[in-house]
Amino acid sequence: MLKQLTIACFSLMVCLAACVDATNWRPCGGTGRNTVKFTVEGCEGRRLCPVRRGQSYWVEMQFKGSSDADTLVASVLGKSRGMSSAMPLSTNNFDSNACDYLNGGCPVRRNTVHTYRYPLFIEPFFPPSTYLINYGLKDATGRSQGCARLIIRVM
């Protein structure tokens, strides 16, 4: 009995540690199934990710290559209440060439786990609001290599 209780407590502690370490995200429908892990600096363990205008946050996505690719393009789309469709949240400061932020650079290899890490700047002119964000990585053919959704609150 004591052994079972010890195992149960240990399992609970491991689960809680995993929850606190991760950003609360979901894969983007069918296109995000290759996404292994997604984190945003300061959002660990939060359902709603608070970000401040004028600051940068490290975004990290681990994904398993869905196909071989020589190039990789990043995009950030957001939708707030009252918006009929998602809008690009990237600006001139956003570098969409994801290869420059990939561990080891491109090419992406099929069935290999890659890590993308980028310092995302929240522009001072973004309206304070809550947004559903799609952060995606696509190859030159438009095939999704990784995609994650999360809810942010711009303050």
Automatic annotation (TrEMBL):
SUPFAM superfamilies: E set domains. It comes from the Eukaryota. SMART domains: ML (SM00737). Its main location: secreted. Residues 25-152 form the MD-2-related lipid-recognition domain. The keyword Lipid biosynthesis does not apply. It is found in: Secreted. The keyword Signal applies. Residues 1-17 form the signal peptide. GO terms for cellular component: extracellular region. Keywords: Secreted, Signal. Belongs to the NPC2 family. This is MD-2-related lipid-recognition domain-containing protein.
